UniProtKB/TrEMBL annotation:
Residues 1-215 form the Reverse transcriptase domain. This is Reverse transcriptase domain-containing protein. PANTHER family: REVERSE TRANSCRIPTASE DOMAIN-CONTAINING PROTEIN. SUPFAM superfamilies: DNA/RNA polymerases (SSF56672). The lineage of its organism: Eukaryota, Metazoa, Ecdysozoa, Arthropoda, Crustacea. It comes from Meganyctiphanes norvegica (Northern krill). CDD domains: RT_nLTR_like. InterPro entries: DNA/RNA_pol_sf, RT_dom. It comes from the Eukaryota. GO terms for biological process: DNA biosynthetic process.
Length: 215
């Protein structure tokens, strides 16, 4: 089974790369990209801003139990959207929907239930299925920069006015709305924000997630 999964994964990645379907900001589980390339691009954003004598704000987000929360129906819609159809598409549907579970408590065993969410961790395909799931997280982001490493997400924007702060907040709300629409949640304890460069006293670092305070 593992060998077949590797063949399927190799063909899916080849297809995604050749058809230019990978999110350009995604650095996780993508050939030629890594945490280093994500950091390098982020640092380049910062250095460019510093050289201009302005400021860049970055908000760090992290999904809670990201791999476990992936809804199968939504994922399969995105698999089709990425033009993964035919035999591989049907096999992926069976791969996800054929999984069952039961719970044992106090010596009692529950009835068998279908697994309705989560990419099967420990499988070869888990990572590629997850990056397909999250590939459109920044689709409606208008003017900010989004960098990803799997579910580790950071959104940045140069800040020179109150309008820039408003636009960054709007883009942050877009990502938060995406999470709600896709039945995923952010880790409440891992929302962070950081500022680099010339920070005017009148432009406070106070972005929020849907009217809730951030660190």
């Amino acid at each position: 089974m593992k060998i077949f999964e590797r063949v399927v994964k190799r063909n899916i990645m080849k297809h995604l790369i050749e058809q230019n379907l990978l999110n350009p900001g995604q650095h996780g589980f993508v050939p030629g990209r890594s945490t280093k390339t994500q950091l390098l691009q982020h640092y380049c954003d910062i250095f460019e801003t510093l050289s201009e004598g302005t400021r860049i704000d970055t908000i760090f987000l992290d999904f809670a139990k990201a791999f476990d929360k992936v809804d199968h129906d939504i994922l399969l819609q995105k698999v089709a959207k990425h033009k993964i159809k035919g035999k591989i598409g049907l096999w992926l549907q069976e791969f996800l929907n054929s999984r069952k579970y039961r719970v044992v408590a106090n010596g009692e065993m529950s009835d068998v239930q279908d697994v309705l969410s989560g990419v099967p961790q420990g499988t070869v395909l888990a990572a590629v299925l997850f990056i397909i799931m999250i590939s459109d997280v920044d689709e409606n982001v208008k003017s900010s920069i989004v960098r990803l490493f799997a579910d580790d997400t950071r959104i940045s924007r140069k800040i020179t006015s109150e309008e820039d702060k408003v636009l960054l907040q709007k883009d942050l709300n877009v990502i938060y709305d995406w999470a709600n629409k896709n039945l995923m949640k952010f880790n409440e304890n891992k929302f962070e924000q950081m500022s680099h460069g010339e920070a005017k006293k009148t432009l406070k670092l106070n972005h929020t997630k849907h009217n809730r305070g951030m660190k």
